[in-house]
Specification:
The complex is a heterodimer of chains A (about 450) and B (about 475). Chain A contains 8 helices and 19 strands. With about 450 residues, chain A is α+β, with helices and mostly antiparallel strands. In chain B, strands 1, 2, 3, 4, 5, 6 and 17 form a 7-stranded mixed beta sheet that branches. Chain B has a 5-stranded parallel beta sheet with strand order 8-15-9-10-11. The chains are: A alpha+beta (about 450), B alpha/beta (about 475). The interface between A and B is large, with 45 and 50 residues.
Chain lengths: ~450, ~475
C-alpha cells in the first residue's frame, strides 16, 4: 500500500519555496483532476496549485503559514486500501509529473516586491471584502457552452459596476426576486461603506470572552517582516513642524476653481511633492538609498516619490517618478494614477518600485503627529497631517490661520539632525510662500 | 532594411478575436498594431462561419425550389423545370460576401486607427516579434501582446487532405462542382452543417462518426430532430465507426475516393466523389515562436493557459479565442478581445459571462444556452423543465418551420425559478437565441419571461410558451 506523493511543482522562475496561504482540501476529501488543492504564496505571486489527477487526499504537508520548498511533498493521495496514517509511514515517492499551477486570476500587483519597508509591497490576492456564503450560482465552467460562472445573480451592468467599484457581489444582499442584486442594492452596499447588511448588531451589554486567533500570513506577514527590518536596522530620529498653509490653500482653491475639466483636482500633496523636488538638490543626503552591505549611500538626481497608499489588501507604496520634471497638474495626475492602480491591484512592477523618498499622508484622518517608519533602504520619510484652521499669534494678535503639521523621520546614520531639520525648514518656507515653489 | 515599430498593443491574428481587440484598443486611444498573414477576418469570416452560412442558405433555397418543381406545386407554387445548380457561380457569390466582409474589417481597423501589418509574425521574446511583410522584415516591440492566433483544421495522418478528393472544411466551401456523393468523417457540428447543405443540394451523404452518436456536444433529446431529418434525407449515419484510410482509385471521370472504416469489428469501404474530414480543430500554438515567449500551456498542453482576465503567466501577454481554450467560438473570442483591450486601457474587467451560446446551423438548427436539464441535475440542482413544440406555434406553421419537429426547452431551478438553461431545435431557431442569452445574463426568472409580452405572430412566442409550460400553464399546449 502506497500513497502517491504530489510535490510542490516549479511555480515560476527563481522561485524556490512558497508559503501555504490556504488549503482548499482536507484529508479524506476526494478530488478531481484540476480541482484547487492549495494556494501558495511566493515572492512573485500567489498561485493556486491544481490537483494533478483524481484521488482521495491522504496527507497534507504543511499548515497555513508554513513554507514549502519546490520539490518537497505537498499532498499525498490515497492509493486505496490503507489508512492514511499507515500509508504516510510507508509512502514511496514516485516520479510525479508536476502540474502547472493555475495563475491566480485576481488582478495582480507586482511580480517582485520592491525593497519597501514602511509600506511593503507584496502580491496581494486577499479578497477585498470578506464574503459570506455565495449566492446560488447560475453556472460554472462548462465545456459545451463555455460559461465561466458569475457567482451572484445580477445583470451584466450591475456586475460591471461592482467590479469597477471593487465590490465582491457575493457579499451584497440582493432585494430582487430570487435574491437578484439590483443597482439599488449595490448603491446601498457602497453607501454603507461595504458593510454586509443584515449582520446582527452586537449589544453593548453582552460580556465577551471570546479570543480570535488569526494567523499572520500572506501580505500581512510581508508587511510585518519589512517593518521589522526597517525598525531594527535604521536608527530613526523624528522631527515635527507646523506649517502655515493659508496662502497655499488660497492658491489651491483658485487653481481648482479655474482648472479645465480634464485637469485633476488638486490636494496639498502635489504642491508638497513639487516643493520637495525643488529643494532636494540642496539636501541630497535625504534623497538616497543606504546600501549597508556595501557601505555606500546612493544619492539620486531623480526625485522619485513613494506615495504610501492604503488599499483593501494592505499598504502599498506606488511611486511617482521624476517629480522634478513635472508641473503641479502632472504630479497630481500621476499620483492619482499610481495610487489608483495600487488600490485596484493593476499597478505594474514599475509603478511600485524605484522610490527615493516617501510621503505618507492619512488625509482626513491625518491627526496631529506620527513617527513614520522609513521605507528601507531609503533614508527619509515625510508624514503629512490634516490642515485645519487654528488661532495663532501674528504680530501680537491672535488670528485664524490654516495650519498643517508634518512629521518626518530620518536615518540618523546618514542624515544628521541639522540636515534633517534643514530639509523640513526649506519645505516649510516654500509651502508658506507657495510662489517660491514655482520660481 | 529592417525597421522597428514600437507600440502599446500588438494583436497577433486578425480573426474575430484579434480584430475586435484591435478596434477596441484603438478606440481607447492605445497605439495599436495588428498582424495578420492571411486576410483580415480569420477562419470565421474567410473559411468558416460566414462562407458556410452562405452555402447553407443557398442549399436551403435550392431545396425549396426543388420542392416547388417536384411536389406538384407545393403551396400552389410550381416551377416549369427542375432548378439547376452552378456550383462555381454559387462559390463566387459566397466569395463576394467574404470579400465584402474582409474589406469591411480592414476599413473598420483603419477607421479606428489600428495599424494592420500584413505578414506572419515570429516571436523571439515575450514582447518582440519579426514580421515578414512584402516590403521586408519589420521588428515590432510592444508593451502588451494579445495572442489571437486561432485554430486550424485537424488532419488525419493516415488520410491527409489533398483538397481534391479528401477535403477539409476549407476545400468543401470552394467546390467548383457538386459531388454526387460525399463521405463526412467526423459527425460534429462542422461536418453536419456541411453535410446537411450538401444533402439539400442533392449529394448522397454518408457520415462516419467514431463516437456512439453524432453531435455529442448536444444531449439526446435535442439532437433527435436532426437525426430524423438525416434519416428522412437518406443521409447514412455510421456511429462507433472509425475511419481507417482513403484510397483514390479509377481513371478520369470515374476516379473516386474509397473510404474504409471499421464498425463493429468489420471493415467497410464506400466509394464517394469526395471525403470531407471534420474531426475537430486544433489551437495554433506552433510555428510562430510561442515557445520563445515563456507562456505556459494548460494541463493538457493544448491551449495557452489564461485566467479570467485572459492574462497568461507572462505579465502584459494576453491570449484570447480558440488558442486560449474551449469553447472555440468566434463570439467568445470577440468578447474576450473587447475585454482585454479595456483591461490594457486600465479598466477593471473580468470574463464573468453566465453563458456562451452555442449554435449549430444544421437542418433543423440547434441552439444551446446555459445548462441542459441533465447538466443542471449533475450539479445538484433541483430543476423544473418545460418543452414547447414549434408545431403549436402559428408563425412556425406559416414558415413550415414545424416540419422538422422542433421545440424549445427551458430549465429552471425549482426553488426560485431562476432560468438555468435554454435549448431549442428547429428551423430558423438560431435567431431566437439572443433572448435566451439575455435571460441568463440578466439572471431572469421564469416569471420575468412570462410577464414579457411577445409579439404575435412570431416564433419568439414559443419561448414564452416554453416558459409558461415550465411553470405548468402553457396556453397553446396540452
Amino acid at each position: 500500500m502506497t500513497n502517491r506523493v504530489f510535490k510542490l511543482p516549479d511555480i515560476g522562475e527563481g522561485v524556490v519555496e512558497g508559503e501555504v496561504v490556504e488549503w482548499h482540501v482536507a484529508v479524506g476529501d476526494s478530488v478531481s483532476e484540476d480541482d484547487a488543492l492549495v494556494d501558495v504564496m511566493t515572492d512573485k505571486a500567489t498561485v493556486t496549485i491544481p490537483s494533478p489527477h483524481d484521488g482521495t487526499i491522504a496527507v497534507l504537508h504543511g499548515g497555513v503559514g508554513d513554507m514549502v520548498a519546490v520539490g518537497a511533498a505537498l499532498v499525498e493521495f490515497d492509493e486505496g486500501g490503507d489508512s492514511p496514517a499507515d500509508s504516510a509511514e510507508e509512502k514511496q515517492p514516485e516520479p510525479e509529473k508536476t502540474d502547472e499551477p493555475e495563475v491566480d486570476s485576481e488582478p495582480k500587483a507586482p511580480t517582485t516586491p520592491p525593497p519597501a519597508t514602511t509600506e511593503p509591497v507584496a502580491p496581494p490576492p486577499v479578497p477585498a471584502i470578506s464574503t459570506p456564503a455565495p449566492l446560488p450560482t447560475v453556472s460554472t465552467p462548462n465545456e459545451s457552452t463555455g460559461d465561466s460562472g458569475g457567482k451572484a445573480l445580477a445583470s451584466p451592468a450591475v456586475r460591471r459596476r461592482a467590479r469597477e467599484a471593487g465590490v465582491d457581489l457575493a457579499a451584497v444582499r440582493g432585494s430582487g426576486p430570487a435574491g437578484r442584486i439590483r443597482h439599488a442594492d449595490l448603491d446601498a452596499f457602497i453607501a454603507a461603506g461595504g458593510m454586509v447588511q443584515g449582520a446582527p448588531p452586537v449589544a453593548y451589554t453582552t460580556r465577551r470572552s471570546d479570543v480570535e486567533e488569526i494567523k499572520v500570513v500572506g501580505l500581512r506577514r510581508k508587511i510585518a517582516e519589512a517593518m521589522t527590518v526597517s525598525k531594527r536596522h535604521i536608527p530613526h530620529f523624528s522631527y515635527f513642524e507646523e506649517i502655515d498653509v493659508t496662502e497655499l490653500e488660497e492658491l489651491r482653491q483658485l487653481l481648482n476653481a479655474t482648472k479645465s475639466a480634464e485637469q485633476p483636482k488638486l490636494t496639498y500633496l502635489p504642491f508638497i511633492m513639487l516643493a520637495l523636488a525643488k529643494i532636494m538638490p540642496n539636501h541630497p543626503e535625504c534623497n538616497g538609498h543606504y546600501d549597508e552591505a556595501n557601505g555606500i549611500v546612493r544619492r539620486y538626481g531623480a526625485v522619485n516619490l513613494g506615495i504610501a497608499t492604503q488599499t483593501d489588501r494592505g499598504l502599498f507604496v506606488p511611486v511617482v517618478k521624476h517629480t522634478e520634471a513635472m508641473d503641479v497638474w502632472q504630479a497630481a495626475a500621476e499620483m492619482q494614477r499610481v495610487s489608483g492602480a495600487a488600490r485596484e491591484g493593476t499597478a505594474s512592477l514599475d509603478d511600485l518600485t524605484g522610490s527615493t523618498f516617501t510621503i505618507t499622508s492619512l488625509g482626513r484622518d491625518g491627526g496631529l503627529g506620527a513617527t513614520p517608519i522609513i521605507n528601507h533602504p531609503e533614508v527619509a520619510i515625510l508624514g503629512v497631517h490634516k490642515a485645519r484652521e487654528m488661532p495663532v499669534v501674528r504680530n501680537g494678535e491672535v488670528v485664524v490661520r490654516r495650519m498643517m503639521n508634518v512629521s518626518s523621520s530620518f536615518d540618523h546614520r546618514i542624515v544628521d539632525g541639522a540636515n534633517g531639520a534643514a530639509l523640513v525648514q526649506a519645505l516649510k518656507r516654500l509651502l508658506e510662500h507657495p510662489a517660491l515653489i514655482f520660481m | 532594411m529592417t525597421d522597428t515599430r514600437k507600440c502599446k498593443v500588438l494583436v497577433v491574428g486578425a480573426g474575430p478575436g484579434g480584430y475586435v481587440a484591435a478596434i477596441r484598443s484603438a478606440q481607447l486611444g492605445l497605439d495599436t498594431v495588428i498582424v495578420e498573414g492571411d486576410k483580415a477576418g480569420g477562419t470565421c469570416l474567410i473559411r468558416g462561419c460566414i462562407p458556410s452560412k452562405a452555402i447553407i442558405h443557398a442549399a436551403e433555397r435550392f431545396e425549396s425550389l426543388r420542392q416547388h418543381a417536384n411536389e406538384g406545386g407545393h403551396m400552389g407554387l410550381s416551377l416549369a423545370a427542375e432548378p439547376q445548380i452552378d456550383m462555381a457561380a454559387l462559390v463566387d457569390w459566397k466569395d463576394a460576401i467574404v470579400e465584402r466582409l474582409n474589406k469591411g474589417v480592414e476599413a473598420l481597423l483603419k477607421g479606428a486607427g489600428a495599424e494592420l501589418v500584413k505578414g506572419w509574425a515570429t516571436f523571439t521574446g515575450p514582447k518582440k516579434c519579426t514580421v515578414e511583410t512584402t516590403e521586408g522584415h519589420l521588428h515590432i516591440e510592444a508593451e502588451n501582446i494579445i495572442i489571437a492566433t486561432g485554430s486550424s483544421h485537424i488532419d488525419l495522418p493516415f488520410m491527409p487532405c489533398d483538397e481534391e478528393f479528401v477535403l477539409s472544411s476549407t476545400g468543401a466551401l470552394d467546390l467548383q462542382k457538386l459531388p454526387k456523393s460525399a463521405a463526412i468523417v467526423g459527425g460534429g457540428y462542422i461536418g453536419l452543417e456541411l453535410g446537411c447543405a450538401l444533402a439539400k443540394l442533392g449529394t448522397d451523404v454518408t457520415v462516419v462518426e467514431g463516437m456512439d452518436s453524432i453531435l455529442g456536444i448536444m444531449d439526446k433529446e435535442i439532437r433527435r430532430p436532426l437525426e430524423i431529418w438525416l434519416k428522412k434525407h437518406k443521409v447514412a449515419v455510421h456511429t462507433n465507426a472509425l475511419a481507417r484510410g482513403t484510397e483514390i482509385k479509377g481513371k478520369g471521370a470515374s476516379r473516386k475516393a474509397h473510404l474504409t472504416f471499421e464498425k463493429d469489428g468489420e471493415e467497410q469501404t464506400i466509394k464517394v466523389d469526395k471525403v470531407l474530414v471534420t474531426v475537430g480543430r486544433s489551437p495554433n500554438t506552433k510555428g510562430w515562436g510561442l515557445e520563445n515567449m515563456g507562456v505556459r500551456m494548460d494541463t493538457g498542453g493544448r491551449f495557452i493557459r489564461i485566467d479570467r482576465q485572459s492574462r497568461t503567466n507572462v505579465p502584459g501577454v494576453y491570449a484570447i479565442g480558440d488558442v486560449a481554450g474551449e469553447p472555440m467560438l468566434a463570439h467568445k473570442a470577440s468578447a474576450q478581445g473587447e475585454m482585454v483591450a479595456e483591461i490594457i486601457a486600465g479598466h477593471n474587467r473580468s470574463f464573468d459571462k453566465v453563458a456562451i451560446p452555442a449554435i449549430v446551423f444544421t437542418e433543423p438548427e440547434i441552439v444551446s444556452v446555459g445548462l441542459s436539464p441533465d447538466e443542471a441535475k449533475d450539479r445538484g440542482e433541483e430543476v423544473i423543465t418545460g418543452k414547447f413544440p414549434l408545431a403549436a406555434n402559428g408563425r412556425a406553421l406559416t414558415l413550415e418551420a414545424e416540419k422538422t419537429a422542433g421545440f424549445i426547452r427551458v430549465t429552471a431551478r425549482e426553488s426560485d425559478h431562476v432560468i438555468l438553461g435554454i435549448q431549442a431545435v428547429g428551423s430558423h431557431v438560431a435567431e431566437l437565441h439572443g433572448e435566451f442569452v439575455l435571460a441568463l445574463e440578466m439572471g431572469a426568472l421564469l416569471e420575468d419571461i412570462a410577464d414579457t409580452v411577445h409579439a404575435h405572430p412570431t416564433m419568439t412566442e414559443a419561448f414564452h410558451e416554453g416558459v409558461l409550460k415550465t411553470l405548468g400553464h402553457a396556453i397553446h399546449s396540452a
